[in-house]
Structure formats: structure tokens, C-alpha cells
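We were asked to recover a plausible sequence for a given structure. The inputs and outputs are reproduced exactly as logged, with field labels preserved.

PROBLEM: sequence recovery
POSITIONS: 370
GIVEN STRUCTURE:
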């Protein structure tokens, strides 16, 4: 039977990875309602990219969905970095060359007709969200906000003319109670003893302010990183919309210097086991599963860490990390993961290793000229 491509069939788009990978796969989907928001016109991440900045396709064979992909243009990224790049994301497909080729062709054609000269992915949907295709470490169950794909996805991309670039890694501390403490020397002790530095309180009432401070730290500290685009308040809070309901305020930290944001580590409980149990759908049993998860969960993930540029080099990051890791231990967490760290950032990789982290996934972005 030939493969048929549909455009903007959301129900099929959501179901595609479950159909393609099966119940035993480590894959975990974002919550269905969140995924719908992400690919809708309401997503401000696509603003400024031009009309029709995002679409998505599904591949069908013999009445069932066998794959999916998004095609989009992040106009802000292209302006900042001087590119004419289109993106694909959420590329999930059975190990079926015809379906993969049809999906990739649909995304390429969509980007080409909008004047793009290259295409790259996965970007789900920007460099500040889930990115990459897993190329090693397939057996590790992903944490929240980590991408996962089976071995055949990278192979199908290569067969369609894509080349791997921008290597990355995810890492985790697998036995936090026994992990070595963060190494703190005189420079770090000086920060801890300096009254100009103080950890800002994170409460339900102060959380909006702390998140806005985290956004400012993110934009300042990542400004020179490859592919980074400053995140607006609207974009940041669109992504963090429900964080106040799931965030464990014990395991994130915002450090102030003379009352102003200096650095942060944003760490949240891993919701993926909960999402797997409810198959990423809110149903009648979801509240029970969520309460059960909150009582038994011992995994958390560092979403990002950053230091204001004018304070970098003073040893602040290890101080904040030590603070967060210690509080996580006392809160009963045993595993701490992180979102991707690029090979071009060896200092962050070294810091993770010093904290007792071990490799999980190897990832690459796959690109192609149009």
C-alpha cells in the first residue's frame, strides 16, 4: 500500500510515535494538551517568522498512522544568525524507508517554497527546547525534556541525504546519595561567605519573580552560545505555563548579588514516569497517578543553569549546584539528569562529570542543503 501524507491532523500527529515505537519503547510524549499548544498558532516562539511559520505532517498506510514530522521556520533565529534555515522536528517514524522519505520530502518542500536553503533537526521547536536525534545510549529512559529516538531514525535520515552535526550529550547522576560532593575551594567559600550573595526565596508567591529572573539569567549567560536566540517573557512563560504546579521549590535556586539576579539552577521533578502511566492524556485516573508519582518519584532534571556574564569566573556555578544537590539529597532524590550539553561546551561537560554524572544519550542534529 502506498504512503499517504496528511497535513495538520493533530490526533494522528499525537498518536504517531506510539504506533511507530510500540508500548515497550522508552519514548515518552509531552502531555497531549501541551503538544497541541506547542504546534498551534498560539505559540509565540514562532512569532516574527512569517505567515505559515509552522505546519506538521503525518504518514498513513493502510488506514493507520506510521510517522510524523513538523516543518517550521524560526524567523528570529535566522535573523540573529544570518541563516536561511528551515527546521524539522518531532520526526518519529516506523522503520519504513518509504514513509520516512515521504515525511522528510514534505518538510523539505515546505521549507524550500519559503526560500530556505537548508533544513536541520530535530528541533522541537527551537534550540531552547528538545533538540537532536539520539545516536547512542538508546536503552536509557529519557527524563522530562530529553528527546529519545530509536536507532533507525538516524539511519533513515542518513539514507535521505542528511548528515550529523553538532554532537551533544545528556548525563545523569545515578546514585545521588553516594555521589561525590561538588568540589569547593577557597574561591567558592569566598562567595558563600560574602554577604552580598544570598539565595532568593522560592515560594508560591515569589515563583513568578524567580522565573522571570531565571529568564534574564538565561538570556545573558547563553548569549554567545551557538544557535541561541534571546527568549522573550511571552515565550518563556508560554513554555513554563504549568511549572508552578509541578516544580519542587526545594531543588531549584536563584542566587542574588546585591539584590539582583546573579545565577540560577532550574531543576524540576521528572514527570516522565507519570506521563508514561497516563499515556500523556488527562483522564479520570490522572490525578490519582499524579499523587502517586509525587509520593514515589526520586528523579529530577536540571533544565538549565546559568551565571550572569559579569560574575562569571568567580566560582558561583559550583556554589549553586552544591546547594541544589544537597537539598535534592535531603528531599530524597536519588537520580538527577540534565538536558543536552553540546561538545562545544567542555566546561559544562566537565562540571557535570565532577558532580558524579555519567553519560546517557549521544545526540546529533541532522542537516541537509535544500
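RECOVERED SEQUENCE:
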Amino acid at each position: 500500500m502506498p504512503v499517504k501524507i496528511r497535513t495538520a491532523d493533530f490526533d494522528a500527529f499525537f498518536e504517531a510515535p506510539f504506533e511507530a515505537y510500540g508500548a515497550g519503547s522508552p519514548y515518552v510524549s509531552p502531555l497531549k494538551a501541551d503538544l497541541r499548544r506547542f504546534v498551534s498558532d498560539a505559540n509565540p516562539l514562532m512569532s516574527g517568522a512569517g505567515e505559515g511559520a509552522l505546519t506538521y505532517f503525518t504518514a498513513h498506510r493502510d488506514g493507520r498512522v506510521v510517522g510524523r514530522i513538523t516543518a517550521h521556520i524560526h524567523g528570529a533565529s535566522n535573523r540573529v544568525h544570518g541563516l536561511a534555515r528551515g527546521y524539522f522536528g518531532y520526526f518519529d517514524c516506523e522503520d519504513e524507508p518509504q514513509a520516512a522519505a515521504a515525511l522528510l520530502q514534505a518538510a523539505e518542500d515546505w521549507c524550500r517554497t519559503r526560500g530556505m536553503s537548508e533544513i536541520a533537526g530535530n528541533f522541537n521547536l527551537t534550540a531552547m527546547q528538545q533538540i537532536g536525534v539520539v545516536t547512542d545510549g538508546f536503552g536509557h529512559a529519557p527524563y522530562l525534556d530529553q528527546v529519545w529516538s530509536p536507532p533507525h531514525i538516524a539511519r533513515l535520515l542518513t539514507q535521505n541525504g542528511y548528515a550529523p552535526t553538532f554532537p551533544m550529550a545528556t548525563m545523569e547522576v545515578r546514585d545521588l546519595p553516594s555521589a561525590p560532593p561538588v568540589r569547593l575551594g577557597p574561591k567558592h567559600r569566598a562567595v558563600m561567605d560574602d554577604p552580598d550573595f544570598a539565595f532568593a526565596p522560592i515560594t508560591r508567591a515569589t515563583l513568578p519573580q524567580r522565573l522571570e529572573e531565571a529568564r534574564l539569567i538565561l538570556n545573558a549567560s547563553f548569549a554567545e552560545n551557538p544557535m541561541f536566540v534571546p527568549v522573550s517573557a511571552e515565550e518563556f512563560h508560554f513554555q513554563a505555563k504549568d511549572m508552578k504546579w509541578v516544580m519542587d521549590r526545594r531543588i531549584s535556586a536563584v542566587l542574588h548579588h546585591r539584590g539582583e539576579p546573579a545565577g540560577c539552577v532550574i531543576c524540576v521533578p521528572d514527570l516522565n514516569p507519570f506521563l508514561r502511566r497516563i499515556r500523556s492524556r488527562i483522564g479520570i485516573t490522572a490525578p490519582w497517578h499524579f499523587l502517586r508519582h509525587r509520593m514515589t518519584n526520586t528523579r529530577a532534571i536540571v533544565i538549565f543553569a546559568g551565571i550572569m556574564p559579569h560574575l562569571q569566573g568567580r566560582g558561583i556555578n559550583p556554589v549553586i549546584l552544591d546547594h541544589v544537590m544537597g537539598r535534592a539529597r535531603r528531599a530524597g532524590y536519588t537520580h538527577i539528569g540534565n538536558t543536552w550539553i553540546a561538545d562545544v561546551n567542555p566546561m559544562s561537560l566537565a562540571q557535570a562529570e565532577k558532580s558524579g554524572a555519567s553519560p546517557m544519550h549521544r545526540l546529533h542534529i541532522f542537516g541537509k542543503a535544500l
